DNA sequence: TTGTTGACCGAGT
DNA sequence: AACTCGGCCAACA
């Protein structure tokens, strides 16, 4: 079981240096995306705040985050915020957010094709074919922590 | 202004 | 289980 520090270290590998902010695309597949969290009066920080509360070994969904935020935003907007997750400070455990089917839909945004799955497995979560097993058990609802 | 694009979702087939 | 489809809405071109 990895410590929080280990996890943060791994996630940090995907970060561009803070000073070189403009250099975004981690894997070269980023087309457009949200501006810096600070620019948008933001539900960004609100979402990130919730993501930081997800316990190790548990996951939640974009829709659950949107609903729990208390803001009028949709799951799509939560996903939009996660698009800039690598710029969140302090870092957030972005690997603990999956879609409502338990699929690792955001895995392409990590530094390697397997990093997201590896981080989850380190926390004891079983992933098969990009899908979380026993999703109901592992799911954590930010609305009722 | 309009059309297109997403780390989405739920219902339907 | 694996698809579609309509709704969603901020940012871009």
Walk me through the topology.
Blueprint lengths: L3 H9 L30 H10 L7 E2 H7 L6 H8 L14 E2 L16 H8 L4 E2 L2 E2 L2 H4 L7
This protein binds a DNA duplex (13 and 13 nucleotides) through helix 3, helix 4 and strand 2.
Poorly predicted ranges: 1-31, 36-41
Strand tally, please?
Answer: 4
* Helicity, as a percent range: 25-40%
Mean pLDDT: 77
How would you briefly describe this protein structure?
This protein has helices at residues 4-12, 43-52, 62-68, 75-82, 115-122, 135-138; strands at 60-61, 97-98, 127-128, 131-132. It is mostly helical and 145 residues long.
List keywords for this structure.
mainly alpha, globular, DNA-binding, two-stranded antiparallel ribbon, 6% strand, disordered N terminus, two-stranded parallel ribbon, 4 strands, 145 residues, single chain
Could you characterize the architecture of this molecule?
This protein has six helices and four strands, in the order H-H-E-H-H-E-H-E-E-H. With 145 residues, the chain is mainly α. The strands form two sheets. The protein has a two-stranded parallel ribbon. It has a two-stranded antiparallel ribbon with strand order 3-4. Mean pLDDT is 77; it is low at 1-31 and 36-41. The chain binds a DNA duplex (13 and 13 nucleotides) through helix 3, helix 4 and strand 2.
